[in-house]
Automatic annotation (TrEMBL):
It comes from Micromonospora cremea. This is Putative glutamine amidotransferase. One of its GO terms (molecular function) is gamma-glutamyl-gamma-aminobutyrate hydrolase activity. Pfam families: Peptidase_C26. Residues 69-90, 226-251 are annotated as: Disordered. The keyword Acyltransferase does not apply. GO terms for cellular component: cytosol. PROSITE patterns: GATASE_TYPE_1 (PS51273). GO terms for biological process: polyamine catabolic process. Keywords: Glutamine amidotransferase, Transferase. CDD domains: GATase1_2.
Length: 251
């Protein structure tokens, strides 16, 4: 049986390697690829591209990776000076998400990916979480992960997928303020939203932490499992209006 093909959204950043310095490169941390591979999937790296979502026709699942902030114009707010967005990622990932939902593919959003899910479903973000919670524990220092307890809503997809998990890592300065049409199914001890999901779909899940860097990356394994169980279906070429609504444009 073939391995499920999992698309992982990537980004373009200046990078250094060998003799090259500051070359624009398509990047995604190898931890995402490793987590998908260990879970039994085959990772396919997807650079930013908002032309169409046709690539989803050959994939079995979509993983929206972490990274820079979602543009505040996507949810109707002026930018905070501390917000660092990537419009090309927003455009490309919202295109992929619309196509994935139209094709009923399993979707996992990680950190930024969870925030993008919330915005796509009509929600809003806190642009600088320490202003809301009064501490820096969710991103204690540049390049340093924090850790905190987490709890899940009984009976939710999150509670099923993450049974037994009570503590997660943390590296983010933004957070979900309003989940839009998504259901909140996980919280940190300070009330920060840690998990969102779409209860109307078999597997649309967003987690605020980085499971690819956890020793037990259950959300990634659950995505691969859901992708492997998905029945084959013809590609969707014309998303309906409900799906089109998850692709807001900058204002």
């Amino acid at each position: 049986m073939k391995r499920p093909l999992i698309g992982i959204s990537a980004y373009v950043e200046p990078a250094d390697w060998a003799v090259w310095r500051g070359v624009r490169a398509v990047l995604v941390p190898e931890a995402y690829v490793r987590a998908v591979t260990v879970a039994g999937g085959r990772a396919v790296v997807l650079p930013p591209d908002d032309e169409d979502g046709d690539v989803l026709a050959v994939l079995d699942g979509l993983l929206l990776a972490g990274g820079a902030d979602v543009g505040p114009g996507r949810y109707g707010q002026p930018p905070d000076p501390r917000t660092e967005d990537r419009p090309d990622r927003d455009d490309g990932e919202l295109t992929l998400l619309a196509a994935a939902l139209a094709a009923e593919l399993p979707v996992l959003g990680v950190c930024r990916g969870m925030q993008l899910l919330a915005v796509a479903y009509g929600g809003t973000l806190h642009q600088h979480l320490p202003d809301v919670v009064g501490h820096e524990a969710h991103r204690p220092a540049p390049g340093v992960y924090g850790a905190h307890p987490v709890r899940f809503a009984p009976g939710s997809l999150a509670a099923t997928v993450l049974a037994g998990v009570d503590r997660v890592n943390s590296y983010h300065h933004q957070g979900v303020a309003d989940p839009g049409r998504l259901a909140v199914s996980g919280w940190a001890e300070d009330g920060v939203i840690e998990v969102v999901e779409d209860p109307e779909r078999p597997f649309v899940l967003g987690v605020q932490w980085h499971p690819e860097n956890e020793p037990d990356p259950r959300p990634v394994a659950a995505l691969v499992r859901a992708a492997g169980q998905r029945p084959s279906s013809p590609p969707v070429t014309a998303p309906d209006e409900a799906v089109r609504s998850v692709r807001p444009r900058a204002t």
